[in-house]
């Protein structure tokens, strides 16, 4: 097996080892790589990354977070030529690794090297080439936007000279380790320092063991364990892996760098406009990927929000450009925060405005999970909350006919509703929540919400069909004859948890299921899974749970595709995020609100699982393990933050007790446990 180890900046260790764990749930093996005719199908190959850099195995390019080339709608990830573009010239099924004892000659393993030092996106020069390293120095060819990016982006690549003469073993040797290091950064000194650290200060085995140790730290920090269903465990492990590989590490030797967002196609793809969303960030980040990360890795969730905060000037300018106030976030975002939606989709960029509410809702959930007052007061979190609310307050109009506020000419999450509709029910919900949140945290932020804003929040018009007791996706929506792309109105039930009775919740699910086109993305069925688990329709939930991943995950490396049967964007971590939400919030029965954390597991586990364990859930400084079997669930408190000023209590059947370290709480499934701060902020 070929191991490619990536550490910050980018250290690559190439080792050949024998794999003894082919049946284990973290190992994905195959006797044949995926091919498309006579060509290796890179779309189905896995990727390795660390949030700073990533590459698809055997591909021609490496990508660095935040490095984009192209003007406005042509902006895309800048392609850095891969330093791994070489092959062993032997067939792995032959006895190529043999020692000729009769002659005692050296064994030479030849290689084919395809060293590239040019890029269509970066003007590279070979600044140095010696026995220790090759240095490529360059700048991207175009700025993304002249107003918010003054010059092209620099990039420096240090790498070990490639093995043009192959690999040798002396007659007396049975093995030898070769270390190849690549370090990539926007600052030359940092790139060089990282290269020298890996090349000279550490043995290759130390680099490898450090890499393994850091990944072990990730999994010990938070993970989902399935007992009794190895195949489901593999699905969960790979989904988390592909998301986490595009996020910053939990710890690093390097100084902190600004994170520049998550794209639906991960950090490993997007080198062309029109390919896997060109590395752009959408609502996918906050709505689909972020929730599965928040409760296990709140620091990474904060990094995701920091991307939006860092680009606040662009968001303010975007609001002014359309005649509104506050911060309006773009539909597609890359390096500068201007809208980089390509030509041909500019109507989507104009009307798909719910993303500003999606970002605000993600901020709401971060506050709910952490109670992070510092983020609100001194890290621009309070500004994010207030200015997105200001946008919505300036966006509405009052209808004398309806005696309600409306949001007109918008595109809902269902993009089949192009070019625009009035009163998207999802958009109106996130707008209302956005204003409510600004008011709720005002005692911390000291940003007073005008009464007029609150009038808007509580008097927005929600399209609703009284005859069928069903939410309408937008004004005039036909519940019988309209085909939709993906989950939309059903999102009111989850993740928004908009107040409604069970009848309406069920009707929303039942009416919109047959209207959703078969070629839609997987996340729709994850949301239906969660909804039917809420309603204790366990068979229907199980049906949708399998539908949420089985045709979207492609062998042999569990690569997610946007559309069933290998179509659409690949390495589609949006789908992986939706699937994980079905596990965590569906079968885990977890709900997070501004006031509390609720746990109420449904009376059935997924697939063939006998036990479901959530290791390392984080809530207001506490660390919780949640174990669910077919009869009971247990919460083990294995850590409490003594610096957290908010004491926690738990409630079960209207009795309250203090939550303390090293206790176990056990209750029957399908009953509710609530954990919350003793005192609500801004109550």
UniProtKB/TrEMBL annotation:
<dbReference type="Pfam" id="PF03632">
    <property type="entry name" value="Glyco_hydro_65m"/>
</dbReference>
<comment type="similarity">
    <text>Belongs to the glycosyl hydrolase 65 family.</text>
</comment>
<feature type="signal peptide">
    <location>
        <begin position="1"/>
        <end position="16"/>
    </location>
</feature>
<dbReference type="GO" id="GO:0005975">
    <property type="term" value="P:carbohydrate metabolic process"/>
</dbReference>
<dbReference type="InterPro" id="IPR008928">
    <property type="entry name" value="6-hairpin_glycosidase_sf"/>
</dbReference>
<protein>
    <recommendedName>
        <fullName>Protein-glucosylgalactosylhydroxylysine glucosidase</fullName>
        <ecNumber>3.2.1.107</ecNumber>
    </recommendedName>
</protein>
<keyword id="KW-0732">Signal</keyword>
<dbReference type="GO" id="GO:0047402">
    <property type="term" value="F:protein-glucosylgalactosylhydroxylysine glucosidase activity"/>
</dbReference>
<comment type="function">
    <text>Catalyzes the hydrolysis of glucose from the disaccharide unit linked to hydroxylysine residues of collagen and collagen-like proteins.</text>
</comment>
<dbReference type="InterPro" id="IPR012341">
    <property type="entry name" value="6hp_glycosidase-like_sf"/>
</dbReference>
<dbReference type="InterPro" id="IPR005195">
    <property type="entry name" value="Glyco_hydro_65_M"/>
</dbReference>
<feature type="domain" description="Glycoside hydrolase family 65 central catalytic">
    <location>
        <begin position="270"/>
        <end position="478"/>
    </location>
</feature>
<keyword id="KW-0326">Glycosidase</keyword>
<keyword id="KW-0378">Hydrolase</keyword>
């Amino acid at each position: 097996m070929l191991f490619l180890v990536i550490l910050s900046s980018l250290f690559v260790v190439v080792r050949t080892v024998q794999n003894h764990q082919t049946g284990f749930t973290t190992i994905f093996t195959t006797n044949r790589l995926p091919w498309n005719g006579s060509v290796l199908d890179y779309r189905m190959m896995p990727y390795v990354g660390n949030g700073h850099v990533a590459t698809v195995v055997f591909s021609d390019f490496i990508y660095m977070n935040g490095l984009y080339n192209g003007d406005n709608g042509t902006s895309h990830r800048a392609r850095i030529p891969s330093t791994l573009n070489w092959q062993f010239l032997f067939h792995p099924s032959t006895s190529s690794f043999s020692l000729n004892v009769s002659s005692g000659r050296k064994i030479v393993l030849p290689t084919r090297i395809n060293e590239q030092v040019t890029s269509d996106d970066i003007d590279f020069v070979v600044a140095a080439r010696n026995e220790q390293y090759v240095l490529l120095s360059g700048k991207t060819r175009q700025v993304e936007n002249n107003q918010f990016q003054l010059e092209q982006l620099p990039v420096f690549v240090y790498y070990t000279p490639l093995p043009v003469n192959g690999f040798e073993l002396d007659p007396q040797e049975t093995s030898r380790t070769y270390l190849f290091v690549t370090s990539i950064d926007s600052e030359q000194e940092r790139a060089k320092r990282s290269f020298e650290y890996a090349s000279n200060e550490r043995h290759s085995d130390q680099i490898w063991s450090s890499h393994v140790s850091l990944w072990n730290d990730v999994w010990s920090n938070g993970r989902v364990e399935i007992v009794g269903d190895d195949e489901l465990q593999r699905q969960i492990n790979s989904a988390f892996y592909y998301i986490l590989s595009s996020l910053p590490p939990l710890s690093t030797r390097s100084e902190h760098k600004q994170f520049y967002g998550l794209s639906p196609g991960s950090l490993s793809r997007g080198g062309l406009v029109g390919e896997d969303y060109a590395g752009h960030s959408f609502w996918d980040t906050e709505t689909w990927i972020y929730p599965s990360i928040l409760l296990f890795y709140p620091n990474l969730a904060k990094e995701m929000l920091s991307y939006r905060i860092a680009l606040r000037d662009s968001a303010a300018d975007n609001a002014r450009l359309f005649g509104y106030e506050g911060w309006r976030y773009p539909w597609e975002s890359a390096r500068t925060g201007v809208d980089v939606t390509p030509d041909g989709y500019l109507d989507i960029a104009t009307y798909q405005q719910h993303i500003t509410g999606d970002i605000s809702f993600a901020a709401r959930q971060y506050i709910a999970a952490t109670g992070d007052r510092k983020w609100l007061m001194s890290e621009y979190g309070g500004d994010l909350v207030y200015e997105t609310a200001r946008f919505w307050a300036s966006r509405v109009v009052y209808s004398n006919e309806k005696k309600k506020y409306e949001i007109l000419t918008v595109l809902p999450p269902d993009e089949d509703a192009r070019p625009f509709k009035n009163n998207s029910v999802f958009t109106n919900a996130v707008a209302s929540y956005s204003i409510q949140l600004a008011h709720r945290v005002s005692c911390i932020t000291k940003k007073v919400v005008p009464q007029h804003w609150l009038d808007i929040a509580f008097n927005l018009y929600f399209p609703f069909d009284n005859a069928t007791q069903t939410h309408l996706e937008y004004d005039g929506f036909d519940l019988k004859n309209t085909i939709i792309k993906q989950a939309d109105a059903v999102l009111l039930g989850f993740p928004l948890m908009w107040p409604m009775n069970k009848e309406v919740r069920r009707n929303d699910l039942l009416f919109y299921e047959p209207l959703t086109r078969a070629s839609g993305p997987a996340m729709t069925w994850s949301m239906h899974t969660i909804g039917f688990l809420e309603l204790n329709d366990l068979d229907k939930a199980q049906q949708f749970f399998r539908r949420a991943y089985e045709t979207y995950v492609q062998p042999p490396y569990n690569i997610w595709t946007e559309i069933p049967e290998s179509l659409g964007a690949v390495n589609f971590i949006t789908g992986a995020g939706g699937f994980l939400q079905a596990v965590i919030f569906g079968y885990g029965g977890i709900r997070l609100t501004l006031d509390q954390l609720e746990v109420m597991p449904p009376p059935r586990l997924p697939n063939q699982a006998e036990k479901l364990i959530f290791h390392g859930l984080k809530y207001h400084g506490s660390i919780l393990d949640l174990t669910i079997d077919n009869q009971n669930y247990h919460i083990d408190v294995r850590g409490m933050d003594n610096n957290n000023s908010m004491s926690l209590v738990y409630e079960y059947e209207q009795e309250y007790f203090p939550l303390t370290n090293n206790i176990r709480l056990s209750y029957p499934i399908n009953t509710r446990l609530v954990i919350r701060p003793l005192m609500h902020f801004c109550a």
